[in-house]
Structure formats: structure tokens, C-alpha cells
Amino acid sequence: MIENQKIRPAQVVGPLGEPLTLESLPAPGTTRWVVRRKAEVVAAVNGGLLTVDEACERYTLTLEEFAGWQRAVDRSGMPGLRVTRIQHYKSLYERQQRY
Questions:
Q1: 32: buried, middle or exposed (CB in 10 Å: 19+, 13-18, 0-12)?
Q2: Which residues are within 8 A (CB) of 84 and not within 5 positions of it... i.e. 6 or more apart?
Q3: Three-state DSSP class for residue 92
Q4: What structural domains and CATH numbers belong to the chain?
Q5: Do residues 26 and 37 make contact, with C-beta atoms less than 8 angstroms apart?
Q6: What is the C-alpha separation between 68 and 66, in angstroms, rounded?
Q7: pTM, full prediction
Q8: Burial, 60: exposed, middle or buried (Cβ in 10 Å; 0-12, 13-18, 19+)?
Q9: Residue 36 DSSP SS3
């Protein structure tokens, strides 16, 4: 019975090295997504504080949108989450995949 229960950490390390808890995450229903907030949600999911489904439901995100954030962080870190730089990073990775 106990092995079926999911154990979650009380806090995880955030994108800037600060501790993140459920209370310190962006408020549910957030609509203005700056780089730091996106990175905090990705760090919370990667650290096990939230599941992908919980994050998508809490912030009304599509699975594709969250996956894009996660991919951007994996490839380029926080700068990859900047909306104004999406095209730059997209062309950069397309060129790298050719070689």
C-alpha cells in the first residue's frame, strides 16, 4: 500500500537557485508568462513538485505548450524561453541537426 503512494518533495531548487514550494509557484490562472515564471513551472515539474498534468491544469496550458517550454529550457536554458528569440533558437537548432 505504501509503495503505491507518491512521495513528493516539499521543495525543489528553482531556476535561479532559490527553493521553490507549491506556495511560491506562480498563482493558478496566471496569464502573463515571463521567462522566470515559465522556468519555475518547468523546474517544479522536473523536480517532482507537480506532475505535467497538474501543471497544465493549474495554469491552463496545453501539453504541447508545456513541452515546448521544457524543450526550450533543456536546449538553451532560461534564455530559450524568451518569446522574442524563438525564431533565432529554432533556426540555430535546425542548422545544428544538419551536421
A1: exposed
A2: none
A3: helix
A4: 33-99 (1.10.10.10)
A5: yes
A6: 5
A7: 0.78
A8: exposed
A9: helix
End-to-end CA distance of the chain: 50
pLDDT of residue 96: 65
Residue ranges of the chain with per-residue pLDDT less than 70: 1-5, 84-99
Q: Give pLDDT tens digits for 55-78.
A: 999 999 999 999 999 999 998 889
Percent helix, strand and coil across the chain, each to the nearest 5: 60, 5, 40
User: What pLDDT shows up at residue 1?
Assistant: 43
Which amino acid belongs to residue 11? Q
**Using an 8 Å Cβ cutoff, are 40 and 33 in contact?**
no
Nearest to 23 by CA among 31, 32, 11, 38: 11
Q: List, in order, residues 6 or more apart from 4 with CB less than 8 Å away.
A: none
Q: Is 91 helix (H, G, I), strand (E, B) or coil?
A: helix
- Alpha carbons within 13 angstroms on the beta-carbon side of residue 77 total 3
